[in-house]
Design goal:
mainly alpha, two-stranded antiparallel sheet, 39 helices, 9 strands, globular
Length: about 800
């Protein structure tokens, strides 16, 4: 089904083009790129089957496009163009978070370059490469040829049908689906799922994994009714979930629908482990007496305060205060409680309005909306953090229905989410979302514990069991040492043995969770640069494997390198490493070498120890399905030929191996899934002085404040942070003037001014203690020129631009100096 994610106009373009392919291009043997030409003919499709699918071993081990080029070396131009158009069909549904639009276009143009006459890519085709619809999954990404072969075989099967038969398929979505899946295409179901959604987006989900579809049905099976098959069942589930509050056009993957993804895509191991330990805790302790009863008692006290306030009783706030400070009440953080009680006493009218917002369920607002309105109303109390608001709001809601609105503490809740495989709430979640997410978490535990010996009855039971589990710090006498060790390992997040299955939780293969976050798009937003700029860098990395960001200090090279690296490794910190080069960096520091070790007898011996590159390369070799990134800061400060040694060869020849200095008997290679992002400060050393052999192995990306993506960066940052842009005007004007003195490589970078405080006093500090010392070094011995760049002189020249007052006496003195020197 169509979802609300993505640009509606862009999505409509993709669906319109896909329908045009299905109802015009394929049945008429026409073309996507050059309408009127015969491209999607049976003859061309069979030629692709013969030469692309039928030659799987040609150039085996080479990069994908190299392999395809060799397979199609003797193919007709029409068959080569058909390969481009098969890619277009495939790329339409592939989400740009998996393959960026720029990468798609680069691949299309690469294949088009094999033709003697290259047809242009029409603007609408270029535009249709984004945003895409679904992530194909890691396996399909690595085996693109399998998915393309599937599309070729499906197209061949459909094109072989009579016109009347094919027209009948287009009038019946389920008949079309059956025909698509009947085509023989081993391991190519991902492309088939994508195709049926492209052609019939109002019938089939934008899900390209059969196992994901089944997981959704398994979780929401009560909504399927008498649906005859998987896709019909999904249609019924969507209708029911839309009516239940998820809304029209919801996505099963998107963070905006959190925690829907976690309801159907549970990690069987971690979720099963949590249920196992909840059952064990429930069997060990009397949670009714130890946890539940006192919480119900506290709720009764709070209910009295609520009733007094709702009735307008005098001194209602005192009744509520007593309930909140009740001797049994440990549910509120003492600081949160104290601040709220103090504010309530001093501002009873405002406190009543805030509490009515929270407690009046017939106000027309949803529960999260009421919580967020309450959070806004109590901001004057000083309670502004998510943790304080969630703790306070959840505790106060117990006055209504404590069995279904239990207390919460954010830190413990997040820790349990992570243990269960849910992870933290999405970024920028409101307190209302955090609370209802926790309620959904409790509901899932209640649901999945139904067949256990000690089933959870409601959310309060779930919260009580989790509270006990989270605060269990001593081994219960009935637990063995081994059991306690397993429990503490589980709670610490360590790998544990698979626990005994919990009765009622059906074991199943753990589904591969498709990434629902466009990491590069999020990074672009965080960095205040365009998505296209980061996509270009990623494309450069995929081409050579390494890039260098070069430019003057303060232009954000290192910050962007680290943030982009995090996006490439999908926020998994173990897949990236940051190192900084300096004049003393050696091969042994960077790759591997002999290091002294002090033995127990006091004698020194030497051991061969791996450096950061060797360690990361091993991880990348062991996990070829993932990308790994090494960020090298200040690349040009080290003696690079000495540091890199034979590794310089491997930067270019990734598929070859060499004998390394300390392990000549072992062959070493740099894996293709290991990328390098280096930074180079051109104030220290010109790029022109870098070894030519090294320069050839890197792509170089300039970072200059007045050029390319860095131009206007400070202005965008200030705008996004709600600050005036006059400081950006100052930087532009100063750099324009400064370039005449020191050149492009030594101008002032914007990061100096990316601060919350840009008052005149702060600007003076930044200039006097960060910028001027650098200028002093650059203009050493040029005393007269330096006077012009003292803060008093700079302030005088740009006072009007900065909207600062001008001291007439200072102005006259400074003007005399600057006029003379300028």
């Amino acid at each position: 089904m169509r979802t609300d994610q993505g640009d509606p106009e862009a999505m409509a373009r993709i669906y319109d083009l896909a329908w045009d392919w299905a109802q015009r291009v394929l049945p008429q043997g026409d073309s996507i790129l050059t309408p009127g030409e015969q491209i999607w003919t049976l003859e061309n499709l069979r030629e692709l089957e013969e030469k692309f699918i039928g030659r799987p071993d040609v150039a085996l081990g080479s990069p994908f496009l190299t392999r395809v080029q060799e397979q199609l070396r003797d193919a007709s131009p029409a068959a080569v163009q058909l390969m481009v158009e098969v890619h277009v069909l495939y790329f339409w549904w592939v989400w740009e978070g998996a393959i960026s639009a720029s990468k798609k276009l680069a691949d299309l143009r690469a294949i088009l370059s094999w033709l003697p006459e290259r047809p242009p890519l029409a603007p609408e085709i270029e535009a249709s490469m984004g945003p895409g619809i679904a992530h194909p999954g890691q396996w399909a990404m690595v085996h693109r040829e399998t998915q393309l072969a599937s599309l070729v075989r499906v197209a061949t099967a459909l094109a072989s049908r009579s016109s009347a038969d094919y027209a009948g398929l287009l009038s019946s979505p389920f008949a079309f689906r059956d025909a698509v899946f009947a085509a023989p295409a081993p391991s190519g179901d991902t492309a088939k799922h994508g195709l049926i959604h492209l052609v019939f987006p109002d019938t089939f989900e934008s899900i390209v994994s059969g196992s994901h579809k089944q997981c959704i049905i398994d979780r929401f099976g009560e909504h399927t009714g008498e649906a005859p098959d998987t896709d019909a069942a999904l249609l019924q589930i969507r209708q029911e979930l839309s009516s239940a509050g998820w809304g029209e056009g919801f996505s099963y993957y998107d963070d905006i629908n959190d925690p829907l993804l976690h309801l159907w895509s549970k990690n069987t191991k971690t979720w099963g482990a949590l249920l196992h330990w909840i059952e064990r805790v429930s069997a060990t302790f009397d949670l009714e007496a130890d946890e539940r009863s006192y919480k119900l008692s506290v709720a009764a006290e709070l209910r009295g305060g609520r009733a007094a306030m709702m009735a307008g009783a005098d001194g209602w706030w005192e009744v509520l205060r007593r309930a909140m400070v009740h001797r049994e009440n440990n549910l509120f953080g003492w600081r949160h409680r104290g601040e709220f009680v103090r504010w309530m006493k001093e501002n009873p009218a405002d406190a009543e309005a805030a509490l009515r917002t929270l407690w009046e369920v017939d106000s027309g607002r949803s529960e999260p909306q009421r919580i967020d309105a309450f959070a806004a109303a109590i901001r004057p109390s000083g309670l502004t953090t998510t943790g304080s608001v969630v703790n306070l709001a959840a505790g106060l809601l117990m006055a209504s229905r404590p069995q279904y609105q239990p207390p919460l503490k954010v830190d413990l809740t997040r820790r349990l989410w992570r243990l269960a495989g849910w992870g933290n709430e999405p970024a920028n979640s409101t307190p209302g979302h955090v609370i209802v997410r926790a309620y959904a978490f409790f509901d899932e535990l209640v649901r999945d514990s139904a067949a256990a010996d000690h089933p959870l009855r409601d959310r309060l039971d779930a919260q009580s069991a989790l509270w006990a589990l989270g605060h269990l710090n001593e081994r219960p006498v009935t637990w063995t040492e081994q059991e306690w060790a397993e429990f503490t390992a589980f709670r610490g997040g360590a790998e544990t043995e698979e626990p005994e299955p919990v009765e009622g939780l059906t074991p199943e293969p753990e589904p591969v969770v498709v990434p629902s976050k466009d990491f590069v798009a999020v990074a672009a937003k965080d960095l205040h640069v365009s998505r296209g700029f980061l996509d270009t860098i990623v494309t450069l990395l995929e081409d050579k494997g390494q890039v260098v960001f070069y430019g003057p200090p303060g232009t954000g090279k290192t910050y962007l390198a680290k943030r982009l690296a995090r996006a490439i490794v999908e926020e998994e910190p173990d897949r990236m490493t940051v190192v900084q080069f300096h004049p003393a960096t050696t091969y042994e520091d960077f790759f591997e070498g002999l290091r002294p070790r002090l033995g127990e007898d006091g004698h020194i011996s030497y051991e061969l120890r791996r450096g950061p590159l060797s360690l990361l390369a091993k991880e990348a070799l062991d996990h070829p399905e993932h990308s790994y990134v090494m960020v090298i800061d200040e690349l040009n400060r080290a003696n690079l030929p000495k540091v890199l040694g034979e590794l310089l060869f491997l930067l270019e020849y990734r598929r070859e191996s060499v004998a390394t200095l300390y392990r000549p008997e072992e062959k070493f290679e740099l894996p293709e899934n290991l990328f390098f992002i280096a930074t180079m400060n051109t104030a220290d050393r010109s790029v022109a002085l870098v070894d030519a052999a090294l320069r050839r192995r890197f792509h170089f990306v300039p970072f200059f404040p007045h050029q390319g993506e860095m131009k206007g960066l400070l202005r965008r940052w200030l705008t996004d942070h709600g600050q005036a842009t006059v400081v950006a005007d100052l930087l532009d004007a100063v750099n324009e003037e400064l370039r005449g003195h020191v050149g492009d490589h030594l101008v002032i970078g914007p990061s100096h001014f990316m601060k919350g405080d840009l008052s005149e006093e702060a600007l003076a500090r930044i200039w006097e203690f960060n910028i001027y010392p650098t200028l002093e070094e650059l203009l050493w011995g040029r005393t007269d020129e330096l006077k012009v760049w003292q803060w008093t002189a700079v302030r005088h020249r740009y006072a009007t631009l900065l909207h600062l007052p001008v001291d007439d006496a200072v102005s006259v003195a400074v003007a005399a100096v600057t006029d003379a020197e300028l």
